[in-house]
Amino acid sequence: LNHSKLNLHANWFADESVALDFTGLAFQDLKIGEFLPGMAWATQRIQEWDLSNGFIPSTEKRIIDKLDCRSGVALPILFRGQVIAVSAFTQQKNIYRTIQIFDNVSRQIGVDLSRRKAEDELNIFFNSSPDFLCMLDADFCFTRLNKVATEWLYKGEVLLATSLFLSNTTRPSGVAKNTF
Predict the structure, then answer these.
(1) Residue 57: what are its φ and ψ, rounded to 5°?
(2) What residues make up the domain containing 45?
(3) Are the C-beta atoms of residues 70 and 94 closer than 8 Å to each other?
(4) What per-residue string of b and e applies to 75-111 under the rule 16 or more CB within 10 Å gives b?
(5) What CA–CA distance (Å, rounded) separates 138 from 49?
(6) 114 with 122: CB under 8 angstroms?
(7) Checking CA distances to 62, which of 38, 77, 134, 167 falls within 20 to 30 Å?
């Protein structure tokens, strides 16, 4: 990946005229520290801008004039301490106290990404383990079996929702009596 530019991958606009103006701004190749998304990327913190503050850097004036926006928020998406994306929101009205909402959203997205990554790694381990692995519910019924478990016991489809403590009456046909 080229970490010197921030690339625009998706956008939503209020109407077609704003979209046409926006795409002509070379907004797709922002550098680190440039405008709201670039500043959020550089600082790894949420950036808020409000025209009522009166401060408009000269490099950003062309973008702000074209977008006809009065305020905006840029939200960095962090994964393992690195910015992997930045969501930028601009609007024609002033934004008041929304930075706290975006801060919570940013943290939650990072937590969800970390959880999903850990879940994927555990699934790979579970499916490729050379050991007998299974998951049971509160009633000791099989909910998931890895490949080794199905080779040792019986077909996974038959054992799913079957109790670990099989009696002779509930034992699927073909499963040895001394299996457990």
Answers:
(1) -60, 145
(2) 5-126
(3) yes
(4) bbbbeeeebebbbbebeeeebeeeeeebeeebeebbe
(5) 52
(6) no
(7) 77
- Tokens representing residue 114 in the block: 């970390």
Residues 92 and 112 in one domain: yes
Residue 104 main-chain phi, psi, to 5 deg: -65, -40
* CATH (domain of 88): 3.30.450.40
List all residues 6 or more positions away from 2 whose beta carbon is below 8 Å from its beta carbon.
none
| pLDDT of 52 over the 50 cut | yes
CA-closest candidate to residue 69, choices 52, 87, 93, 47: 93
Residues 144, 101, single domain; the answer is no
